[in-house]
Specification:
2 copies of one chain form a homodimer. Chain A has helices at about 1-10, 15-25, 80-85, 110-115, 120-145, 150-160, 160-165, 170-175, 180-190; strands spanning about 25-30, 35-40, 45-55, 55-60, 65-75, 80, 95, 100-105. With about 190 residues, the first copy, chain A, is of the alpha+beta class. A 4-stranded antiparallel sheet of chain A has the order 1-8-3-6. Chain A has a 4-stranded antiparallel sheet with strand order 2-7-4-5. The longest helix of chain A has 27 residues, at about 120-145. Chain A starts with a helix and ends with a helix. At the A-B interface, strand 5, helix 3, helix 5 and helix 8 of A face strand 5, helix 3, helix 5 and helix 8 of B. Chain A binds a DNA duplex (30 and 30 nucleotides) through helix 9.
DNA sequence: ACTACATCTTGACAAATGTCAAGATTTTTT
DNA sequence: AAAAAATCTTGACATTTGTCAAGATGTAGT
């Protein structure tokens, strides 16, 4: 299981076997059943989580019981509520497995230690954070500039893989419209 | 003018006079008239920009000529299109001064050099990036969970100062609704 | 194989929002 | 001070979207 993470890191860095050994020693392996959660709102999040296999979602549950999906995390992606982790405040969000998943957790302090100990790991993390900022900025851009139909098409373009793995109501939740509206947009588009 | 930046840094760090001297030597001072731009879409952005005085906006101009505001940057805030800077690709955005403003520009390479040379400056930048990620995540959260009225009230709570300095249609643009709808939301709220 | 549950679509209607236009008010420029 | 421009509100109407409900289809668990 660590092999997957190792391969991922190998693509982006040139770490030594010693580095890998250190990293592996700090990884907590977790196997998740479908629908199993790793974060519940109200709890403080303390890890960096890497998805080796499967698919998770981070979402907000509003007072009406409606789910608002902040992020999908498929294999080779990171997840976790950075806000809660950085502030030590209870999270607003839930994270759970949409599919049976294998994940690696690295405890906050261990992760910081790795960044300080392995310069190249630190560079890699900085790169990842930069990409994350770009992704977030891009999502804000689409949310204020695109129509619902455009948001859906954009989602398909951006995440074709995820689109084929999750039910439509989750896509609707991610782009911020109701499931019924999405259904109608799809049938409209099909007519053209 | 550098004094303002120095005071800002002094609040968040404990840098030496030598550090400040190095930083100052790399700062490009720019005075902006109202409506003057510092970034036009199509250009590549290459700086980190700190606002000493005034107020800027970063926005996207769609095909219909409509403005979609991604960010307001008042004094003591940073602005710039990080995506363009990190990728060296042309920016989608424009940045210009809403009020007469004084800003400091630090060239991308110089900024990286400062991070490598002054560890405490680097820590401070990392903190700033973390906060930025939190802000972006928060904005996505509000954009998919709140109604238009709630988005407006949230804006007032989050940015009371900016709310009193910009015209309503810019707030509408920022939260992603039309100026007319915002006007109606306000008159509705006033009745209560 | 059967049952229970989730998913997806569709209809009907209400509510929210956008668009276009006009006019009042305020601010800025000359 | 006068003219020009920007801001804000409001009306009328079309369009989009949400909500509730029903039913069809597909999927998962026992």
């Amino acid at each position: 299981m660590f092999e997957i993470f190792r391969k991922y890191l190998g693509d982006k860095t040139t770490l030594s076997n010693q580095d890998y050994a250190l990293i592996e020693s700090l990884c907590i392996i977790k196997k998740l059943r479908k629908n199993q959660y790793i974060l519940q709102s109200g709890d403080v999040w303390k890890y960096d989580a890497f998805v080796c296999r499967g698919l998770l979602k981070m979402y907000y549950l509003d007072v009406k019981g409606q789910e608002h999906i902040m992020q999908f995390a498929p294999e080779n992606y990171w997840t976790g509520d950075r806000e809660s982790m950085d502030t030590d405040l209870p999270s607003k969000y839930n994270i759970d497995a949409i599919e049976p998943s294998d994940i690696l957790l690295i405890e906050k302090n261990d992760f910081e230690m790795l960044r300080k100990t392995i310069p190249e790991f630190n560079n890699f993390v900085n790169q990842t954070i930069k990409k994350n900022v770009q992704t977030l900025q891009g999502r804000i851009h689409t949310s204020i500039t695109l129509s619902s139909e455009e948001k859906y098409n954009n989602f398909l373009k951006q995440f074709p893989d995820i689109a084929s793995r999750v039910p439509l109501h989750m896509i609707a939740s991610y782009i911020g419209i109701s499931a019924e509206t999405l259904s109608r947009i799809r049938s409209q588009s099909a007519k053209k």
